[in-house]
Fold each of these.
Amino acid sequence: EAIVVTGWIPHWMFAKWKLRFLEDPKKVFGDDEHVDTVVNPSINTKAPEATAFLKKFSWTGEEVGSVMLAIRDGAKPEDAAKDWISKNPERVAEWLK
């Protein structure tokens, strides 16, 4: 049976169920939002490796949602992250180049 709920990505519910967004031409629920990485400007000189990593790092809402679902289902955050890394070694390798 179809239901309507408010939701956002990233969220674990998108990893658990087949969901889709409804059209919202009047922007009742607002515009799309985004997540930014914000760092202290001195990190460029204090930790250039971290700066290089952050410039390469990105993952999709679906990827974040899968880790969130694992945590919701009882995994410790560290274990959920390690599991995701073990399943996506090529992505992580690109970030670490």
Amino acid sequence: MVRVVVADDQPLVRMGLRVLLEAEEDMELVGEAADGRAVVELVRELRPDVVLMDVRMPGLDGLAALRIIADDPVTAATRVVVLTTFELDEYVFEALRGGAGGFLIKDGEPQEMLTAVRA
């Protein structure tokens, strides 16, 4: 079972990801966060396998939260898949440098996201 946390400041996006993940027999949504600080705390507490994380969130953005998760020995085993609506090379490069396990555009196919979570 792949344990997943979703981090996005948009409730509708979180709901869509929740519905998608809950329909999969091999995935379990264990938490949701609306900002970077909350997702870092959730990862420390729940130790999920994967975080689906938006780049742009209030307060601590997704890229900063990614670096904290990747640099902390307690949370470094959690893989982060970065999600964004913006196809900017700088986001891709910064996410990969920061330790992201993947980078997806939100308007992609749902199966691509599920494949990334499983990988």
Amino acid sequence: MRSELREQIYTIVAQIPPGRVTTYGRIAKMTDGATPRAVGSAMGHLPSGHELPWHRVINASLKVTEHGGAVRQREKLRAEGVAFDSRGCVNSELLWP
């Protein structure tokens, strides 16, 4: 992935406010050519010591994608007041932007 595209993704993620979420696809549409998969890859390769709110990026089904950090991601979202329904989905009213 081009470094410029990765930087676009990280700039967008940095803007997601606490208590809100967005999807890989929504972020991709805000860039100059990223795909949702590329956004996911960028999230999976964040530099050590970063301050990005990676936990606020979820999948198109409004669920946390299952990965090694999924439990931690749900915990961080709950700490910001994000609730999950019985299916593990976030309320669409919390979508940003």
